Amino acid sequence: MDRALLLLLFSTPVWSLMNGIDAEQDFSWQLRKVPQIVKEKTFLLDAPKFEANAKLELSGVCGIECQRTLPVPRLSDLKELLSYETVFENGTRTLTEVNVLGADLDPVANTTTKVRSRRKRQVYGTDSRFSISDTRFLTNFPFNTAVKISTGCSGILISPKHVLTAAHCVHDGTDYIKGSKKLRVGLLRLKSKGDGKRRRGARRSKREVSEVGDHHTDAKQLEQGPSKRSGRKQKASGLNERKSERKPSFQWTRVKSTQIPKGWLRGITGDVAVDYDYAVLELKRPHKKKYMELGISPASKTMPGSMIHFSGYDADRSGQLVYRFCSVSEESSDLFYQYCDAESGSTGSGIYLRLKEPNKKKWKRKIIAIYSGHQWVDVNGEEQDYNVAVRITPAKYAQICLWIHGNNDNCAQG
């Protein structure tokens, strides 16, 4: 895909590129009332050991068939699952118990729906991922919202100080993983000429040294695109020319606190529950980048082409930001099952949509799920694999919103 096609993708509604499919349907964000998550008690817990090994590919989790048999959570279950742990930079750990007010418990919530048959897992056959190398895309919205987590995952900016990622990037369900004790988040920035020159007497730790990605502005670095260039010369201003010469690098920021839902802990569910595989990291210092807003996940049939999009730092393309999109294949109330091409490292990426704002002509992108990664599950005694994303439900929206703002004032609708 060349630069012109990227511009087309992000300036034209996806469904208009699909032979007129769904062209007449109105795809808008539907504001929904969310339950209120109220903090009741906070307890001090023992400090975590930080001894768990990072496991970016889960196994033995509840899959598509299993989801169909799950009972709808009762209000007491929901209160338990949405209580949460907070781990602070100094190693202190707390548990906050919550109450859930105004929850709409759907009696058919756990049914799964088949959307489209497409059997393509991880990277099979033609690789449909796109490495973003042009700095004009790389450091601007929406690509600039993707971040790298020091434990080997990706994440997405959701406020000036908060990052959304997968819970298993920091916790294995029993303990916090090694490396999460001094957790850091890498934000891409353009390295200027003066960067890298140390002031006399200045100190830098190894973790604070910027990781320079091997990015180039040549459009042929978008590997999966057509071989022919458009032939039309793009006239760049002097500013753009200077900007394109500056290489992107990671600026690492320490994490002040980490919050994960209690539903992720093995002691509650007996096993890791992918439904609650999400976490929020609070940065020690705010950034100045544009971030992505949260949205409640709509049903896939209300999405243009049932398509989802996400960008992350796949391990097989070191230092490169990788973008992809694909259709949802099946869904439950809490999960999207899809076969977007992805490798480890993209786990924790924010999955987003671009829909119209209600009663406006403007279009807005919002995060509606978190990419949990490639999963192996036991289905009728056989191991099967798929890629899964955790949907942001009204209850999860309320919880994440509470983590961001510290209160419910801005969390009435999503």
TrEMBL record:
The keyword Iron-sulfur does not apply. It comes from Podarcis muralis (Wall lizard). Residues 191-252 are annotated as: Disordered. GO terms for cellular component: extracellular region. This is Inactive serine protease 35. Pfam families: Trypsin (PF00089). Residues 207-221 have a biased composition (Basic and acidic residues). The keyword Plastid does not apply. GO terms for molecular function: serine-type endopeptidase activity. Belongs to the peptidase S1 family. Snake venom subfamily.
